[in-house]
């Protein structure tokens, strides 16, 4: 298993990411739990759990964006089906979490929701902001909080599988270390390509050359070239120069007055003992632990230290049991009553709550306050610029694009408005197979393809890249074409002969290796046998063999004393190879590598365990697909 994963790490990272992403929640991932989803139907049903069309769309976009970060270097076969399967796995994990009665507490919910920037005002969670954001997305708190709790259950279920199945054994660590750090000695011999030239006719007949041209003419295609002029727009510069008027700020205040009507709030830390089950014995065990913690506090021990010793970090991950500032209405009633009845800088007595016991420590208490517009005017202006930055910038971009479109070209706007000159760049002809000098185009193959399809004088759409935006104009273009045979006749003859010689050389060497072995083949062609040694995971291998990934993979896979069955052509020489010796590493280096290797193995075993778990759950599940959805996404279910 480990060796198969090593061979395709970049593609693996995306595949694993497709699994992991199922447990990464944002406000947008829960699209579909609200009313808007019903009109669009569903993608699939897993028992009683529904995968909505919107969930699929959101997840697919996230996966597609992640793959694009690699600039086309990674190809994931049948991505739509993989994304759908990741969503099915998510529902299966939730079903199993519920079967095992894995809980999601209110404190875990609060901790998660408080961490989301969309729900914060000036870096602090604001319950009115929270409700407004949900409302604007067609959700209510009950729907969203259920989705978040479902996700917390899935996280816990996944962590449980990881913890029980992903431990790396000493033997596994030692084997992986030996594999990585073994020293490989490779014998190799170089046989010049022109050795086989004598087997090829000196003269090339026209019929053969014409046939070769028809088979390979795409190789000689001259790529399209475009000459562009573009305007660059800097979002940060725009926002720095943008002034929010008092009228805009007052309108925002009036529409969101509840944001500035601050409820009573408390900065609180908790010692929280969760009962494993709801039975009397579990509650008694939780009671014994909370009483023990309380005794330590009474004896003068620091609250934060006691909280760290007793509180489950999965429930309250922050140091000292600190859950931060909470407003009235956020916590379950028993916890809230305890918090707001405790004096500042003191702790409460142990209190029984829904699923365990708590002791609360009140760090600070903030009174309710209604802020006036004047008190918050400057803050509101910054809020508008920050929270509406994308909207403001996009509106500005659309206005600028319309100006250019109305005048017909960037050049026309440039001629009428000299101020534009500072933002305009003109590039000379760039071939389609060259790296485009603007990153926003270079890293997005579909954007580049679209640009090269435009005609002379046409404008691109707005191209976004982080805080920058661009509009391109095609100043001039040269179409792609395939040269006629007589235009490339000299190169064609050379390439034809090289192709024939290469095929003849491969055929002869494969036959010799199969019949006579490595040493005899080298001797037949008077090739001097050399050797080189390298550590298996060292970059030296790439330097020695020209970074030929296929060759590197073949050498690493070959057993001690065996030779490669096929020759490799590098720099006009055929190379034949034999793995002469594999020397295990010194054991003294294992200790320094142990932790890194253990983490690597644990990740692989954990992911394999999760995959195996979901496969077993899949066998028992009742899966129903929306055929209309499958057809529209071109997904084929075996």
UniProtKB/TrEMBL annotation:
Xref: InterPro entries: PPIase_dom_sf, PPIase_PpiC, PpiD_chaperone, Trigger_fact/SurA_dom_sf
Topological category with respect to the lipid bilayer: Single-pass type II membrane protein
Subcellular location: Cell inner membrane
Keyword Transmembrane (UniProt): yes
Main location: membrane
Keyword terms, alphabetized: Cell inner membrane, Cell membrane, Chaperone, Isomerase, Membrane, Transmembrane, Transmembrane helix
GO molecular function, one term: peptidyl-prolyl cis-trans isomerase activity
Keyword Ion transport found: no
Pfam family, one: SurA_N_3
A GO CC term attached to the entry: plasma membrane
Domain of life: Bacteria
Similarity comment: Belongs to the PpiD chaperone family.
Name of the molecule in the record: Periplasmic chaperone PpiD
Gene source species: Mucispirillum schaedleri ASF457
Gene transcribed to yield this protein: ppiD
